[in-house]
Amino acid sequence: MAYQQCMYAKGNQIPGCLAQNNKGIAIKLLVIFAESVIEQILRNVNYGYKNHINADHATKLVQDYEVTDASVHDSQVFDELLDHTQDAFGNKRAVYADSAYRSNDTEEKLDKDGITSQICEKGTRAAALTDEQKESNKKKSKVRARVEHVFGAQEAMGGHFVRTIGLLRARVKIGMMNLVYNMIRLVQLLRRDMKMTG
Q1: Which of 64, 110, 126, 140 could lock 117 by a disulfide, CB 3.0 to 4.6 Å apart?
Q2: Are residues 121 and 176 located together in one domain of the fold?
């Protein structure tokens, strides 16, 4: 009888089974239940791949990219995508990113590399953002939003469905998608320039 009660019990009712006559079965079921819950929590499976990009905010062209599996946080490929090229005056492009990228380590690295940080600031429960910080984030987000247009255009091309097995094939497919996007965007830029001059 205890065995059936424990089998049909829902999560929080299982500990009540320990009081039944057949303690061995109840304890065993509780352990199996706990192990399966812990296994599900630890697995926290993320399926798919991510396309991390470095795009120019003026032209919306993808300048560099990195493909990882979906479980990798965006900030973990931040260093690989940094652009260290300099303009004619010796200045490096500023970095615009959302608050998920902001940390003391990131800010120190950017400062050391001579790159201006335009990463949005994040507030906490203890220290909410001031009005000046909110206004600053709003200005930064206007520039950062142009990069999101790249992902929107790729989604319209059907780019959010990568049907491959293995990271290597996904890298090739996503790399081709970035290349095709850049070609389409370049044609748009050339047409725009032709209309302005002609």
Answers
A1: 110
A2: yes
Closest CA to 98 of 77, 125, 122: 122
What is the widest separation between alpha-carbon atoms in the chain? 91
Question: 37-64, pLDDT tens digit by residue?
Answer: 555 555 666 678 889 999 998 899 999 9
Cα separation, 18 vs 88, in Å, equals 75
**Residues 57-90: pLDDT tens digits?**
889 999 999 999 888 888 899 889 888 888 888 8
* Confidence label for 3 from pLDDT (cuts 50, 70 and 90): very low
- Number of separate domains in the chain: 2
Instruction: Please tell me whether residues 132 and 155 are part of one structural domain.
Output: yes
Provide the domain limits for residue 123. Answer: 49-197
* pTM for the whole structure: 0.71
Mean pLDDT for the stretch of residues 125-131: 89
Span 121-138, mean pLDDT? 90
Distances (CA, A) of 52 to 44, 72, 124, 144: 21, 10, 26, 14
Q: DSSP alpha helices (H): ranges in the chain? A: 2-8, 23-43, 78-81, 104-113, 131-156, 167-197
Separation in Å, CA 174 to CA 48, 96, 99, 121, 161: 12, 23, 25, 30, 10
